TrEMBL record:
Keywords: Decarboxylase, Flavoprotein, FMN, Ligase, Lyase, Magnesium, Membrane, Metal-binding, Multifunctional enzyme, Transmembrane, Transmembrane helix. Residues 15-227 are annotated as: Phosphopantothenate--cysteine ligase. Its EC number is 4.1.1.36, 6.3.2.5. One of its GO terms (biological process) is pantothenate catabolic process. The gene is coaBC. Its cofactor is FMN; Mg(2+). Catalyzes two sequential steps in the biosynthesis of coenzyme A. In the first step cysteine is conjugated to 4'-phosphopantothenate to form 4-phosphopantothenoylcysteine. In the second step the latter compound is decarboxylated to form 4'-phosphopantotheine. Catalyzes two steps in the biosynthesis of coenzyme A. In the first step cysteine is conjugated to 4'-phosphopantothenate to form 4-phosphopantothenoylcysteine, in the latter compound is decarboxylated to form 4'-phosphopantotheine. Binds 1 FMN per subunit. CTP binds at D104, K114, F149, K163, K167. It catalyses: (R)-4'-phosphopantothenate + L-cysteine + CTP = N-[(R)-4-phosphopantothenoyl]-L-cysteine + CMP + diphosphate + H(+); N-[(R)-4-phosphopantothenoyl]-L-cysteine + H(+) = (R)-4'-phosphopantetheine + CO2. Residues 10-220 form the DNA/pantothenate metabolism flavoprotein C-terminal domain. This is Coenzyme A biosynthesis bifunctional protein CoaBC.
Amino acid sequence: AEHLLRSKTLKGKKALVSAGPTYEAIDPVRFIGNHSSGKMGFAIAEALYMQGAEVTLVTGPTHQQTAYAGIHVVPVVSAGDMYDACMAASPDAAVIVMTAAVADYRPVSVASNKIKKNAADWELKLTKNEDILLALGKQKKAGQFIAGFALETNNEREHALAKLQTKNADMIVLNSLNDEAAGFGVDTNQVTILHRSGEEKKIGLQSKKAVAEEIVSFIITHVHAKP
Ligand code: CTP
Ligand code: CA
């Protein structure tokens, strides 16, 4: 019966959301990852779905589950897998929201057997992962609305504005880790939306679900707006 409660605001529009961390394998038992819980991404996917969008949610490893069977969940592990899944789903997406905490680097090679401890120190060689949001921004279609997130601990606004520009995004959601009630694991969040027009909107402390709903309503009011 979930479809009966959905609004028709985004009916017929496709949305692509990335969520969670990525895991970059070192060997069969180890990986490089991060503390992303996936909560914001799942909440945004659900808010878009409840506004009527056809949602593809590309998610790294998390404990999140969605109650909405209509959301197309694509589970991935590494940044490379997430890149491929997002590229595949992006061409006909009207709204793209990249919330994933994508690992910036991966090991140059993945050992096929468990790396054994030995007397010497171990140096792990890393190489940079593809930036998914940047790639999507470069090939942005007319009418496509692209949102990113920025998790910052210092010079927050400046860093977020740089990301807005460099990645050719329409908006960036600034998440400040200086705030105890915001960020990893917790159920609440407090963010600032920076739109490419210069408009800014502060979204006060509330549940991640409520923050997601506010982000989605901001997207809806800006999705048709010209630059
Ligand atoms: N992002 C992405 N692919 C990557 C890295 C980041 O799609 N390989 C996206 C994130 O999902 C987020 C935005 O880019 O929407 C900003 O991510 P963030 O980690 O804050 O910024 P980076 O550009 O990676 O820069 P840094 O980590 O150095 O701050
Ligand atoms: Ca990063």
